[in-house]
Amino acid sequence: MRLLAHFILILGLLWPGIVAANDWEALEQPGAFAIMRHALAPGTGDPAAFDLDDCSTQRNLDDAGSEQARRIGAAFRERGIAFDAVLTSQWCRCRDTAQLLELGPVTEVAAFNSFFRDFDARAAQTGAALAEIDARGGRPIIVTHQVNISALTGTGTRSGEVLVVRRGDTGLDVLGSILIAP
To answer: What are phi and psi of 179, to 5 degrees?
Structure first.
């Protein structure tokens, strides 16, 4: 059965129209919480004139990304899954994703901002993110960027993919994955 679930997950990663196997049960494990990559936002990185305070200068969610975020939030609510906090990067695509989830009040946390343009900041940023997670405790859902998730878990994610994680010795241990296709 586990092999079948992995096969379905691989199919979902190769063909975006297929919904990957979702591991909702992983959220029932002690210490489990969620970290997700923002929903679909076409492109890579941000334009040269990027300004954190001006969404018009950033790569943003498209209509499919907005719908994907709504569907992800609805899937959590339909299952009665609640979080103690909704934390997000200050980038507009992450903030918008977090708000469209409708899972609670959204709190911006600079420690979850992207370091895509400055990989030298990776270690410090990852340390700050782990310190933020440790200080808050509880069961948050965190909306952030691919580079942050990879640094925290050693795992890549697709747009809108939710990793179910738990704090490990050196980072976040991945317990499962939830992917709702746009």
So the answer is: -135, 120
Cross-strand bridge partners of residue 36: 143, 162
Q: Which residues pair with 178 in a beta bridge?
A: 162
Token digits for 128? Answer: 């700050």
In the chain, the domains with their CATH numbers are 23-178 (3.40.50.1240)
Helix (H, G, I), strand (E, B) or coil at 173: strand
38-52 average pLDDT score:
87
169 CB-contact burial (10 Å; exposed 0-12 / middle 13-18 / buried 19+)? exposed
Spatial separation of the C-alpha atoms in residues 63 and 114, rounded to whole Å: 22
The number of beta carbons lying within 10 Å of the beta carbon of residue 18 is 15
Q: Report the distance separating Cα 165 and Cα 27, nearest Å.
A: 8
Is the pLDDT assigned to residue 16 strictly greater than 50? Answer: no
Q: Hey, is 37 helix, strand or coil?
A: strand
> Could you please report the per-residue DSSP string of 44-63?
SS--TT--TT-GGGS----H
Residue whose structure tokens are 């911006």:
108
DSSP state of 179: -
pLDDT for position 177: 95
